[in-house]
Amino acid sequence: MRILFAAAAALALAVTGSAQAQAPIVIKFSHVVTNDTPKGKGALKFQELAEKYTNGKVKVEVYPNSSLYKDKEELEALQLGAVQMLAPSLAKFGPIGVREFEVFDLPYILPDKAALRRVTEGEVGKKLFGLLAPKGITGLAYWDNGFKVMSANKPLHLPADFRGLKMRIQSSKVLEAQMRALGATPQVMAFSEVYQALQTGVVDGTENTPSNEYTQKMHEVQKYTVLSGHGYIGYAVITNKKFWDGLPADIRTQLEKAMAEATQFANDASQKDNDDALEEMRKSGKTTITALTPEENAAWRKALSVVTDEMAPRVGKGIIDEFQKEAGAGATH
Ligand code: LMR
Fold it and tell me: Which atom of ligand 1 is nearest to the CA of 87?
């Protein structure tokens, strides 16, 4: 009888054991934009490749468009281990105490994508990821979105046009200083709430990439869009450090390979996505898209030139200098 009992127990153990061995490792990847954006496409590509390279030992569940968590909640959820992967905008790390990421928000700090790549693939990119470790976070990759436009229900030619406007921003103190330097009142708001806030007049305007404005239909409630290119939006793909370090080494290697390829894919898609979105916005006839004249551009640069020095104590003079050196942007400031 005892033997029978022991055999049954052993069998039960073997069954659960093998069931456990077969149960996939689940990665919940939460983000706030639609599937049809550079980040959305990158997340889906990572899902496809991660599942393929691990032969199904890893299952990636992608939760787009704030369907699981909004901006601030998602970072808390990652730290608590409720989700395993995110790709927050680089402008959203201040609230968890890593202010140095806000260097990316400084006006005109990135002249082009080549400069961006030098930074993200260079020492600054590495250093910034290093700052995440004490927060229980591991940085995996930098993903592109693109350069920003500004929009409102009035034309925005000169800084004076911003006077009295309430402008939605991401949770970055540099963006706050930027809007104040233009004479506007900044309003921090989760991405998921922006369309409605614009529609109901809770805020007057916003800044974002064409891809983000178009996929959230913001252009339908903003009569004017200006191609200012005053700043950049990109992402840090991050994971819970404990989760990542606890993965079997061979699985981690396969996921790193999947991430490297998904990064290439997302970054390759980003320019076309933004170009296409702008074209769709134009075709819709709902927003008038204009470029800045050289004189207007100079006036924006002049108004915004105070922001870098003003924010140096917060972001860190050292990181700003290093960033400018790597970007090769020093000459433009
Ligand atoms: C925002 O404006 O909040 C965006 O950066 C959202 C995103 O993740 O692109």
Answer: 8
